[in-house]
Amino acid sequence: MKARFDELIHAPTRLAIVSLLAASEWADFKFIRDTINLSDSALSKQLSTLEDVGYVEISKAFVGKWPRTSAKLTKAGRTAFDQHVLALQEIVAQSGATILPPSGGS
Amino acid sequence: MKARFDELIHAPTRLAIVSLLAASEWADFKFIRDTINLSDSALSKQLSTLEDVGYVEISKAFVGKWPRTSAKLTKAGRTAFDQHVLALQEIVAQSGATILPPSGGS
DNA sequence: AAAGTACTTGCCTATTGGGAAAGTATCCCT
DNA sequence: AGGGATACTTTCCCAATAGGCAAGTACTTT
Lengths: 106, 106
Prior knowledge:
The structure is a homodimer of 106-residue chains. The first copy, chain A, has 106 residues and is α+β, with helices and mostly antiparallel strands. Chain A has one domain (7-93): Arc Repressor Mutant, subunit A. Chain A has helices at residues 7-10, 12-23, 29-36, 40-52, 75-93, and strands spanning 27-28, 56-63, 66-73, 98-100. A three-stranded antiparallel beta sheet of chain A has the order 1-3-2. The longest helix of chain A is centred in the last third of the chain and has 19 residues, at 75-93. Chains A and B meet through α2, α5 and β4 of A and α2, α5 and β4 of B. β4 (98-100) of chain A pairs antiparallel with β4 (98-100) of chain B, so a sheet runs across the interface. The first copy, chain A, binds a DNA duplex (30 and 30 nucleotides) through residues 11, 13, 29-30, 38-46, 48, 60, 65-69.
């Protein structure tokens, strides 16, 4: 896998979102918002951004009577994340730190 | 060592600078500039920023007749970098990736 | 004297991220 | 039915940031 630094993923908030999604299959809005401690509007915008570039898939389903928005990494999103982690590995490796790549693929 | 995400270090350009400095004792201006491919002004400003917060020490010496500006991580800078790497480790660990901390101290 | 080295500083602009608040749509409660 | 709540989305606004360019500083080479 080729290492590719991804500015979009690197930004602190999106790094938190994407790595959270990398750990879970589907994560819903409230969970993400509360986990990374973000306002509704900020999260909404970041998810739209990530969706626009094809890194996340958004699902809007009704659970009972209530709408629930969930997000999941797309294959492209996971690849970009994995590559970004590799890029961090390369950058940080110079200092003596080592980053091992994700063990789980998509 | 406590993990602490550092926004200042996280920014792409400064992450490149700091991890470069983490690998070398002293690095001089031209070397950093050419390695991370930055303009003089941009590097100058970033080094000033890093110096202002106490993460780098700047040395201005004359080598022969020519001035040479060099930079080195301070202890605080190295600590902040190490802690930031740990913070990345924690974030990324959720996804199945593993980051090992730097092996070499200051 | 003119030009080059080695930066630094000021000016400007483009982009970004986030909060606040209003908007949309639906639902629960009284 | 009206009021408030849930679950977001969108608009408005602002503050911070980064980088390029150009000018400035200080000294050297030709």
